[in-house]
Design goal:
The chain has six helices and seven strands, in the order αββββααβββααα. α4 (160-175) crosses α6. The protein has a four-stranded mixed beta sheet with strand order 1-3-4-2, with helices on one face. It is 34% helix and 17% strand. A hairpin with a 4-residue loop joins β6 and β7 (148-152). It has 230 residues and is α/β, with parallel strands linked by helices. The two termini are 34 Å apart. It is elongated.
Length: 230
Amino acid sequence: MAAERDSHPPASPRRARAASGSQVAAPSTRGRPEQQPAPAREPFDRSRVEVRRSARRSRTVSAYREGDRTIVLIPARMSHAEEQRWVAQMLEKLAAQESRRVLGDDALVARARELSVAYLAGRAQPAQVRWVTNQNSRWGSCTPSERTIRLSHRLQGMPEYVVDYVLLHELAHLLVPDHGPDFWALLEAYPRTERARGYLEGVVSAARLPHIPGARHADPAEPGPAESCG
């Protein structure tokens, strides 16, 4: 979050969530000529971005995540060309912020509890969640009998929603050890499942790494559910 904030108080609880996003001051364009018309093709996926204009907002541009969407708050006076430029910039800032976050083991436990409450009705209660450096064939694993979850250190530096997906994936295994329909039904509530899986698939393809966790096609080398699962 940039240091400078808009001087107006939040208009709703949703606006309050902007504190977990990114905010920067937009330069004044008063007295300046209108910029050139925006290009026909927008530099971002409009279906995943919601732009909200506000007449009360005059100096700052803010952005934050809301489920599978990104909310960008801009001054009402901005032209369409300025809107595109600032949305693209804020998307980059959010991605950079998320990639810098590396949770410690204690924070992983706290995050696991939050995800369990939010998406699994609090039913998944791990006894331990920690990073490990010896998992190069999977992103995460769990041992249901001991209620332990391990995440590969290779996830560190990836976007927060990707880490959350892998963590939620392993939490779901505490309730359903296999990858059957009941297991996948548990992950339907998480709005960024497909996006996170797509991100990991891209990493796998780019780096030629092993399979992503819990691929729907069984991995013959994967341990049975009594030992661990991923």
